[in-house]
Amino acid sequence: MHIPDGFLSNVINLTTAGISGGVMALALKKAGREISDKEVPLVGVTAAFIFAAQMINFPVVAGTSGHFLGAALASILLGPWLCFIIMALVLVLQCLGFADGGLTALGSNIVNMGLIGGMGSYLIFRIFQSFFSSSPKGFLLASAIASWFSVVLASLACALELGLSGTSPFSLVIPSMVGFHALIGTGEALITTSILSAVLTVRSDLIRTWRTDKPLTVRL
Amino acid sequence: MGKYTQKRVVLWGFVLALIIAVFLSPWASSWPDGLERVAENLGFIKKTEQAGVTLWERSPLPDYAIPGLANKGWSTALAGLLGTVVIFGLGWGIARLLKRK
Known about the structure:
Distance between the termini of chain B: 28 Å
Order of helices and strands of chain A: HHEEHHHHH
Oligomer: heterodimer
Order of helices and strands of chain B: HHH
Radius of gyration of chain B: 18 Å
């Protein structure tokens, strides 16, 4: 759901650019404080996987495709702040290097996929994780739900921006965007849980949210 | 602690990313994605043409293709390879800078 140039109004473009810049400053501060030595290469490999996997569009219904987002994967693996940095990096490279997503819409794309998709899915993951058992099954189920929501919430944010920009009426654009992305979200859940269950098997200690005692806190 | 060293996990993750970018990307669906589909259905897809700023002439590899490379599959694969290597280095580098602070 990379928004191209021309879809959004200047007000929306500038607002979301401001928000993403502000959150980036905060994320760099927060992530710098909490990142461990072993996580340094993980940031690179997570970003590389997300970039590569985002290239693979898979069909969802006849004539429509979707692709992996990765925000839930990154936030569950590395926490919401590193997730935001990773998603923003990927989006900037896609925009400047590959003309995927507009330059004027970059702020909105970062807000939708990095902030809403990442932070939103992290909170949802933590909520469900606290309800489910601390077994791998409970962990993966919470991950599946969170990753479905990451795509749906990001698409909702995108629909709201399109509506606020006057590009399309809310009553049409919200159900269309959310409808297609509810389907794409099932692919997201499948990919995210596959990767997480593989990491869980080989090195569960590399997953930051696996069996930690501090649920539900995003300290600002 | 698991059976694999961290180095191995990172290496295999990176290899997986490269395989996806190089060997799967040429076979990705070319159908419009969710947003493009909605933009077509609701009739605002044309707004991209009215955009003042366009990156298409300026970005080095527009639409994940190597300009001048006729074979579309190789072009996508090579663009994917380049992007994956660059983002791997960028991510690692920024994380290292963060850690050092």
